[in-house]
Design a protein that fits this description.
Elements: E1 7-8, E2 25-28, H1 40-45, E3 50-54, E4 70-76, E5 84-87, E6 96-97, E7 110-121, E8 126-129, E9 141-148, H2 151-154
Antiparallel strand pairs: 1-5, 2-3, 2-9, 3-8, 4-7, 4-9, 5-6, 7-8
Length: about 160
């Protein structure tokens, strides 16, 4: 359902596929459409955890990760809308371009979340995480990649959070 002021693309971005992706696993959570918190902060406030289950063959890639470490997860919002290029979100004032928002509605439904490893089974390929971005990471959401979060790399020099 679109809101007044939103603009849809005149084509389906899925029809313009130019590269292939391989899912390496899935995010498991208790969230589904209509039951999920709005964002990662709200998901954490519920106290519910989630986990990542890697597909066979990918578990060895967890070597070097540790419980308590922050990781970034890239996932495919497989049940998201893809054709809006201008959106009217409920919180900011007025329309915004898709790339100016953290919305799961995007031409390439790739989402990014930074989470903390709460448990790790490198043999089974299972990572417990503190929360999941419940706006779009419903149970079974495909996982694209995992990267360690590194403060000296992932925080721009001189950046300060807004007051």
């Amino acid at each position: 359902m679109s809101r007044e002021g939103e603009i849809a693309l005149p084509f389906d971005p899925a029809d313009r596929t130019t590269a292939g992706l391989t899912f390496i696993g899935h995010i498991r959570s208790s969230w589904a459409k209509g039951t999920a918190p709005k964002n990662l902060r709200a998901a954490r406030e519920t106290g519910q955890a989630a986990r990542i289950e890697l597909l066979p063959g990918y578990a060895a890639g967890l070597t070097g990760l540790e419980v308590g470490q922050a990781i970034q997860i890239l996932y495919w919002v497989d049940r998201g809308v893809r054709d809006l290029i201008v959106q009217v979100p409920g919180h900011p004032t007025g329309p915004r371009g898709t790339v100016a928002l953290r919305s799961p509605v995007r031409p390439n439904p790739i989402a990014l979340g930074t989470v903390i490893i709460t448990s790790l089974d490198p043999v089974a390929g299972i990572i417990g995480i503190d929360a999941t971005d419940a706006t779009d990471a419903y149970d079974g959401t495909p996982l694209l990649d995992i990267k360690p979060w590194i403060g000296t790399v992932d925080v721009p020099p001189g950046w300060r959070p807004e007051a």
